[in-house]
Structure of rRNA-processing protein UTP23 homolog:
Amino acid sequence: MKVTRFKKACKRIYFYINNFNYRPPIQVLIDGTFCFAAIKNKFSIEDQLKSYLQLELRLLTTPCMIIESEKLGHKLHQVTQKLKSFNLNKCGHEKNPLAGSECIKTMVKDNHFIVATQDRDLQDWLRHQIGKALIYLHNVVPHLDEPSDASKKFVIRKSKATTRVSTFEDEQLMNIKKKEGLLKESSLVRIKNIKKKKKGGPNPLSCKKKKINIQTKIKKEKMKSKIKKKL
Ligand SMILES: [Zn+2]
């Protein structure tokens, strides 16, 4: 795998970890279309996906996706078996199963999943959501999709709001200090500290003195040696 591809994947997954509370083991919700592409391209979902994302993963599917695959008959037998090998995440549609894509849409609402799908419509839908990660295969190569514009804008708005809150908190703190007379005290401490720093600095005069002392020492030693020679 090329380093740039790895770096991109790493940067993207940490975007979700840092901003949308995704936590290892990262949950990957896999549908039949992704399984079909993986089997066709001899892509090992367990091993190759893990080495691509470099994180601990939990591979999941839902009853709806297994039922959908079973309905499509013997041709998708391998896909059904593959789906059954993953952890089963209950979706609440057991009595009235939904189409795989519709089931995923309900599942991602309140959960942090990376959705693994080749379904173009579902991919487009995910690309318009906030904080929903998408992974797909391009032949045998996995791609973690770039975070959606909606996700990026959400993060920018969130960081601006945090800055505003901290500014407001700072103002509140200043007001409390003023009321209790602590502000003057703290200002005085700051001034004292500045003065201390100035006091602690090197005194150019003392440096000069040291030089003179050394020179006089040398002169004295020379004199002593001359006297000794004369004796
Ligand atoms: Zn379901």
